[in-house]
Structures
1.
Amino acid sequence: MSQVNIGIIGFGTVGAGTFEALNTNQELITNRVGAKVVVKKIADLDLETDRGIFVDPNIMTTNAMELIDDPEIDIIVELMGGLEKAEEFILKAIKNGKHVVTANKALLAEKGEKIYRAAIKYGINISFEASVGGGIPIIGALKDGLSANRIKTIIGILNGTSNYILTRMTNEGLPYEQVVQEAVKLGFAENPPTLDVNGTDAAHKLAIIVSIIFGAPVPFDQIYREGIDFITPDDIRFADEFGYNIKLLAIARDLGEGLEVRVHPAMISKHHILANVNDAYNAIFLEGDFVGPNLFYGLGAGKHPTGSAVVADIMNVARQIKLGAKNFTPPLAHAIQPKQNICIHSIDELTSAYYIRFSALDQPGVLSRISGILSKHDISISSVIQKGRQIDGSVSIVMLTHESREIQVQNALEEMKGMEILTKKPVMIRVEQQ
């Protein structure tokens, strides 16, 4: 086959970046694939918006089924996002014998099992490098380069918007609300950036990573996630005094009897390599039992980085088509599926050190009452910082605990609710000690 035809469904930022990469590096791509990769048709509901690149209007349509039912199209590239319609189109494409490339992290994280089963049933290749980390080739590394390893630990900064917000807050001492407003104006964040800042986007990506590592879809609703909207410049300054930076981390660990899978803000030592990943950059730190520690770093979103990952998948599938492949690697790269479902531990079972900030009345006995309740729940205090009186007459008391169980910390904070000495709800941030 001297030509491989593709159809693109969804022509927004990533779709335009994919089309641009295919055109700009057409000769390079042809040489590496051994066949010309041609965009035969593009489907999008908006045919009027200027994407900044020339597209022959004759290949544009508003009807995605024209691509899915076209016998000459070999690969469907789904870049429309969303859940129901994207799932419908992908499943129809698979049944029609078309290979699929997608960047749809939410779909794979929440509905991936059905899609993976369909791909295996119909002997179809489904590729999704662009669903995690933009231009960072983490999916390929996990499926191939690191496939001989048991991956015990994953710690990642997987959302560029949250990382940009926290970086601005750290470097400039700005409040969360101001940075979010500026990020929206500059185009770094959606308006509102809910899925980015509440941990959902990072959890989608973490679910995909963990699914590949263990060979089975992760139950997404069991992944604990927490956002960054409660973080203040005070918390960032106190973290700095303790020797930490605050990052939104996606963490997964193999505990032997189950998995720890969670997304939340965490204090991480300034000496850790992830502590210095700033602005809109993503990074994924992992440890394999044979390869040891690895770090993947780069832009986790954007027209060109994500388009690059989409085209890499297209090229990989096109090579196999060119070679006449009849069988393909299973979507999660495990020929034999695990016998048991993935068991995710509750966040209540987590053992960690904790940062807790109290806003309390400036009067004698306050510290002893707080520490007494913590002691009652077997929580040992490592360090304490107390700052002077604030405008409202309260003082900040900040504690760093030794390792404790999450449920003990939550129970202690629950007992403190309604205490007349506290002027605000306590702020708790977990400390990542990897």
2.
Amino acid sequence: MNPLNHVAIIMDGNGRWGLKYKKSRNAGHKAGLNTVEKIIKETIKNKIKFLTLYAFSTENWKRPKKEINFLFDLLENFLKERINELHKQNIKLKIIGLKNFSPKLNKLLNLSEKKTLKNKRLQINLALNYGSKFELINAFKNLQKSKEKINEKNLSKYLLTKNIPDPDLLIRTGNTRRLSNFLLWQLAYAEIFFENKLWPEFNEKDYNKIIKKFKNIKRNFGKI
């Protein structure tokens, strides 16, 4: 049985679900939060220590302003209502990405990280305004400035995921088969599962089925 320490998820399909069932992309984003809560609970049950959720990419700024504003309002409300509960559950929140949002949201993100900093049960990495190509270019620039030897270990120190183990498993919902500029370096040896269901439809049973399959995969890491 393979140990499972870190799951990364591309939560795709909120907008499509919203249009299909509620005639509103925003309704899909709201429904997607329910799935997030279910998956957090199930991650804890499975004793997985790290969960990375791709919430907003650097490319998502191309979406309509109205939708972007709704997403950030949704995030603000979620943090205000749920951060104390996450803290009580011994969950740590870390933001990976550039925090160049509104002063109000930036402050809330910083306070949430600070409040949960010492929690150990589960670390949730929220990829917000995150793009892997930017992350890698920035890491190489900082490594060059440091005059350290260029190798994998030293480069990893300058990634946004510094001190976070690489994901063992990537799940992407929404019947789309691509990485979309997400953790390109860190996913080098992750097992990847593409799920046909849209994110609001994804449930605990689907998640556990993938975890079970992962645990039984023969992982060679280049060996036979």
